[in-house]
Design goal:
It contains no helices and 17 strands. It has about 220 residues and is an all-beta fold.
């Protein structure tokens, strides 16, 4: 898919609720990777870079060219309602370089994308072939230090059309979008300048959500 797209803005963030329980209905762990044998990442050499699994982590490295982008999917399908956590550890990352998690994916070109930049910004986009829509626009986060190396625990709580984002167990924001219902997930990295971006992902855990009734 194109390295850059013209986004269509859909400003649908839900209001912050800092005192409420933000991760209700967490159920059993249905996917957890803690050893090389358990890896389900689709590793290899891609047009935008390489992905390799070893030492209980996935290493994603983009080509050192402007706009180089790499999406790596996991082979496992998960429920559309879930709580996903993983640890992201960028080692080469600067400025507007970005990385993060893709979810509700139907493939590399159709998914939601939680984006973190190396200048402390967060955003959620909806990607479909030849189209990118903004679900939650850029939001500064005190839990995302500028530059690299850093280590961050990322969490995505997803129920029906609502997504809630966490960094290091701290709630960041909620947003809503009803369009994508895919069962795949993955990670990505993208170079905003002419230099490689290198990020390791580890400690993947996915929980199903039990019976949950949203607040009116």
């Amino acid at each position: 898919f194109p390295a850059t797209l013209t986004p269509t803005v859909f400003p649908t963030p839900a209001p912050r609720q800092p005192t409420a329980e933000q991760r209700p209905a967490l159920g059993e762990v249905i996917l957890k990777e803690s050893s090389d044998v358990a890896s389900g990442w689709l590793v290899g050499t891609y047009n935008g870079g390489t992905a390799a699994y070893g030492r209980q982590r996935l290493d994603v490295v983009t080509q050192p060219t402007l706009g180089a982008s790499l999406v790596v999917l996991h082979k496992t399908a998960i429920p559309t309602d879930f709580y996903l956590e993983l640890t992201a550890s960028p080692s080469l990352c600067r400025g507007k370089d970005s990385y993060g998690v893709v979810f509700r994916a139907e493939g590399e070109a159709s998914h939601y994308r939680l984006i973190l930049t190396c200048d402390s910004q967060l955003r959620i986009e909806r990607w479909r072939p030849a189209e990118a829509g903004v679900v939650q626009d850029w939001t500064a986060s005190g839990q995302v230090p500028a530059g690299a190396p850093v280590t961050l625990r990322l969490g995505i709580w997803m129920f029906r059309d609502e997504m809630r984002i966490f960094v290091n167990d701290i709630y960041q924001f909620s947003a809503r979008d009803p369009l994508l219902q895919g069962a795949r997930f993955g990670v990505f990295a993208r170079a905003a300048a002419a230099g490689a971006v290198s990020v390791s992902f580890s400690d993947l855990s996915v929980r199903r959500l039990e019976s949950y009734i949203p607040s009116p």
